[in-house]
Amino acid sequence: MRNAIWAALATVQDPELCRDLVSLGMVESAEVSDGVAAVRINLTTPACPLKATIEADVRRAVLAVPGVEAVGVTFGATVRPPARLPLPGIKHILLVGSGKGGVGKSSVAVGLAASLALDGARVGLLDADVYGPSVAHMLGQGQGRITADAERRMQPIEAHGVRFISMANLSPAGQALVWRGPMLHSAVQQFLKDAAWGELDYLIVDLPPGTGDVQLSLTQNVTVTGAVLVTTPQDVALIDASRALDMFRKANVPVLGVIENMSYFVAPDTGQTYDLFGRGGARSLGLDVLGELPLDIDARQDADRGTPSVLAHPQSAVSLALRQVARTVAGRVSVQTLGSSLTSSPWPDAGSAVFCAA
Q: Where does the chain bind ATP (predicted)?
């Protein structure tokens, strides 16, 4: 019967990777005793967006095996690394960019990092906005200081399960940095290569606005798994987002999709929805829209208080949307790492989704 169970599992496909669980090496064990099957699946990310679908498909397939009366499904997760790590101990580097300031890019980067950590991933966050660092404040560590270990490597600060480095923790509060390009390049290289990040599944990089020195330094010196664009719906933001998109394409950085931030506002007293900046403009970029995040008063207050909204208000609309976006991004990283049935661009046109044919 054990062989029959493995054969049944070989008919179950990962909905994103479009291959069966057995050939992907995701079936960690499958045993049966007294009619009860016990199956353990090792997911490609702890933030798997389709975990429930996989579980239902596994149960259905195994229950169809003659003699099986019940099925228990448990899960583990191992983020698969690429053929070559971008940095020692770091499996994937993900960039979060916008092209312009004021669209909530840093808030989204913090939310994505906290969400992935909540799901069990090992996450780092690099605040590469050297001139306007805000990550430390949003994580409640604005007064923290970066220290060095015995090997004189910078020790990231940890908050809410996320290891991070920010210039805010290296320079006096309120002090302006007046640096030219070479100094920016040197700082970014130190943050990446001279820091004791440890073992990370994902290192998220919060980019500064624009398409300048920091972006060039990153894309030319490390292998980036992918980038996520953040924009608000109005034209003035989309114009700069399109420039950031062009930069990523010229640097051969895969763009995983776009997040439309401040997409709408729901009045807390009436429940009425207002499209303050328009809505749906992100679709004009021709990318898959990963999520539409509402303008949320609690999320703003949570950032000021130093606790990510996904922790402070986990059931709010913006937190639920961020959790789903993070899982979608993690799934797409798995698709890119393990390969998919798509042969041209790894991501479809806006509005569609990556799923296997039924």
A: 99-106
